[in-house]
Every structure is written in C-alpha cells, then in structure tokens.
Amino acid sequence: MSISRRMFLAASLSAAAAPRANRPNVLVIYADDMNYRTIGSLSNPEVKTPHLDKLAARGTAFTHACIMGGLQGAVCVPSRAMLMSGQSLFHATANLVKQKDWRGPVGPYALWPKLLSQNGYQTYGVGKWHNGPALYQEAFQNGGPVHFGGMADHYNTPVWDYHPSGSYPKEAAKPRPAHSSEVFADGVIRHLRERDKSKPFAIYCAFTAPHDPRQPPPEFKAMYPEDKIQLPPNFLPQHPFDNGELKIRDEELLPWPRTPQAIRKERSDYYAIISHMDAQLGRIFEALDKEGVTENTLIVFAGDNGLAVGEHGLLGKQNLYDHSIRVPLIFAGPGVPAGKRTDSLVYLFDIFPTLCGLVGLPVPASVDGQSLLPILRNPKRRQRAELVYAYRHVQRAIRTDRWKLIRYNASGVQNQQLFDLKADPWEKADLSKQLSHRATFEKLDARLQELLRAAGDPLDLTRPDWGWKE
Q: Which of 79, 125, 398, 423 could disulfide-pair with 143, CB 3.0 to 4.6 Å?
C-alpha cells in the first residue's frame, strides 16, 4: 500500500472515530442552470461574484465538475436526484426519478440529508425541490420555504412552509413578496438563528436562480450594459445540425437565427441574476459569521447543470457540450485546503461520499460516487480517466482530459463530433471526419459503449436506431 493511500485511510478512520459533537456543520448550496464560466475569479472576470470569489479563495474549486446528463428535458430533476442519492444517472433515474409515489424508508437508497439526520444532525431543506414532496419529507426533518416545481416568476414563486405531515396541497402555497433568491436566503438565515445549538446542522439551499425567467433587480441589471457584453467565441446563429432536441421550450425562447443583440441581452440578464444571487450568498455567509459557526461549517457550492445562452447557437441545457455539462463546484471549511484548484474529472454525485468522508461517516452501499477526499489532499490526483454523459435517447458522449466524442441520433440520422479540448476548449473545431484522428475516434467510441453498458444504459449504439423503444 502506498504512503499516500495509508495517510488517506488513517485520516478517514480518524474522522469516522470523531465524536458527533465535534462534527462540522454542513451547508450545501445549489444554483439552477449555472454555467461553469460564471464565477469571476475562477473563469470569467466579466461576471461579478465577490462572495463566491471569497468562498473559492478559502476552499478548493473543482474546475472540471460535470453532471452525467439527463434522460428527460428537465435535466435538473435527475441532477438533483443524483446529488441527493449519490447514484449515477441511470440508477438515480430508475430508483428515484421514475418512482413518483416513492416512499421511505430510505431502504437501499440512501439520501445524504437523511443519513446526517440519523447521525445527530438537524436537517433543513430550503428552496427548489424538483423530486416530489414525498422524497423531500423523507430527506429532511425541517425546512421551508420550499418550491415544488421547476421554474416560476422570481417575484411570485409559490412556496410552501415545511409541514410535519408531509402534506403540501396546492392551496397551501404562499408566494413571498420578494425575489426568490432573497426568499430562500431568508429561510436559511432564519434556520441558522432558530436551530438547536446543541446539535450540528445540515442545510440544503437550492436557488431557482439563474433559471429563466431571468429577472434581476434593476440595480444588478445596470451592472451589465448589453452593448458591453462579450459574445462567447463559439457563438453561432444556429446549431449546425439537428441534435435531436432543437424543438424544446428552452430553445424556443428566442427565434432562429440567434442574433448577437439578442444573445447579449440574454447574457446580460443571466450575469445580473447570478450577481444578485451572489449577494444573497453574502447575506448567508454573514449570518454564519454572526452565529459564530463559519470556521466549523463545511460549505459546498454547486450548480445543477449548465446552460448554453448562445453558445453553439443554443440556449438551453439539453445537450452535452461543456457549457451545459460542466458546472461550478467549490468545497470550503473544515478539512478542505484553502486557495486550491483542481482540473480532475469529477461528477456531481461524488459530493455525497465526499460529505461522508469530511464528517466522518461510512459511505452507504447504494452510493455510486467516489469520495473526492484524495483529490482535496492532492489536487493533481486523477481518479477518473474519463467521464460519460447521456441525454435522453438522442445524445451520448465521452470525455478524457484531452478529447471529447459526442454521438447524436436524431430520428435515425446520426452525427458525431470529436473535439481536442486542450487545443479547442470552446468546442469549435469538429475533427471527427479527419482521417488522422480516426484511431482516436474509434478508441473513444469503443470505450464510450463499454462504460455506458457498465452504467446501465439500455441503448445499443451499434444499431441504426440505437435500439430505442417508446
């Protein structure tokens, strides 16, 4: 056994042996539709995110964190199921997303808030919950305001207060007279003040920002004059071919072809609502300071999926380009090195086992994710050589540190793209037709099919229709 492996095991055993009273608090914050290039200090100085910048400075940022995709247009539903359960896409979809009448006990499918509550934590769920009231009730001991839906007017978002019975009838929803980001930050701050201070807390706060409708307050919109907004290098008026999902709500928010003026407006609104959400994070972090718990609170910030907002001629997240697959991910707090960045390839469902390691709990058998503790201890470490992605029955992809292969099947018409991500990080130059890259294409394609089969994908990419059945 290597020295580094022995050190990691010793640290893990020491954490697991720690008394519950010494375990850190946990605050997991989830943004909605947040592209990985929207944190000023990490990826895009055009976006003003001072509080996320400070969080990144006192923690470790994973610059190549990815979702695994989604088997439906509302990608955030499986993303949230994967986050809560630590299961990969095909398992979480079958076990949690498709079980609309799902009830506990947690049984073979652990949920990280439930696991923490079983080990002395008081748990709260605040904000967007897109996996049904039953699963929400199973996950948390308390919470609210909670939004059981995918999107809403940010100034008229229907929210429910937590109810011990688990009953959340439609008529019980009561919109608050404020922007949704402010409403959810208020909820977190209230729980911090009212909590039982004899126990550690675990709070999950899921914002609906920056999901459309993008409605930033005027003072934040003024920070981003539309004529000053930069177009992304991969801006296109329209996607070069049918990717199998061009006729969906997200893509119909603007007419084709996309114009530079329209995209600048969209990106101005997008950046502005992100800056407004960042200001609410500042309020939450200030509340942690006032409660005297900042130093003993593990904070995780992530996004449920990315968004195109004009890249590749697209607007939404129903694709497997980096702008929609890669998301921000920052860990900060006890046990997390400060001021570090890592480009190791990781999935969002790795958060669950990482939390277990950081608070000293064993990882449940139902969890597919890998703990990121070894990477936190050595940011140059590589745990995965590649990641695979899936979107509905029309797109599949694989990426390594250097290459990405995307395959498409739109009503039986197949296309493919091959990108050299080191030379072409904006995924502009398709190399799939070049004979000099044929061996790379075939090697990646074989590995893609092998990993998808292992992950439980029902499709067979060797067939003309991929074996899809309605």
A: 125
78 contacts 72 by C-beta, under 8 angstroms: yes
327, 67 Cβ separation under 8 angstroms: yes
**What is the predicted pLDDT for the residue at 469?**
76
Segment holding 12, helix H or strand E = helix 3-17
- Could you identify the residue written with the tokens 């994967």? 82
Fill in the DSSP letter of residue 118: T
Q: Are 426 and 232 in contact, with CB atoms under 8 Å apart?
A: yes
Burial of 91 (0-12, 13-18, 19+ CB in 10 A): buried
Q: Where are the beta strands (DSSP E) in 96-224?
A: 122-128, 142-147, 201-206
Contact of 49 with 55, CB cutoff 8 Å: no
Q: Residue 424 — φ and ψ, nearest 5°?
A: -140, 70
**Location of structure tokens 């990826």:** 43
Short-list 150, 149, 157, 153, CA closest to 174:
157
The CA angle 82-348-153, to the nearest 5 degrees, is 75
Q: Which residues of 287-302 are buried (b: 16+ CB within 10 A; e: fewer)?
A: bbeebebbeebbbbbb
Query: At a CB cut-off of 8 Å and minimum separation 6, what does 167 contact?
Result: 133
CB-based contact 82:68 (threshold 8 Å): yes
At residue 108, the pLDDT reads 66
Average pLDDT, consecutive stretches of 10 residues, N- to C-terminus, the chain (470 residues): 36 43 91 96 96 98 97 92 95 80 58 95 95 89 92 93 91 92 97 94 97 96 98 97 94 95 98 98 98 97 97 97 98 96 97 96 94 96 96 97 97 94 98 96 97 95 86
Amino acid 2: pLDDT: 37
Largest distance between two CA atoms of the chain: 66
Residue 463 structure tokens: 């067939």
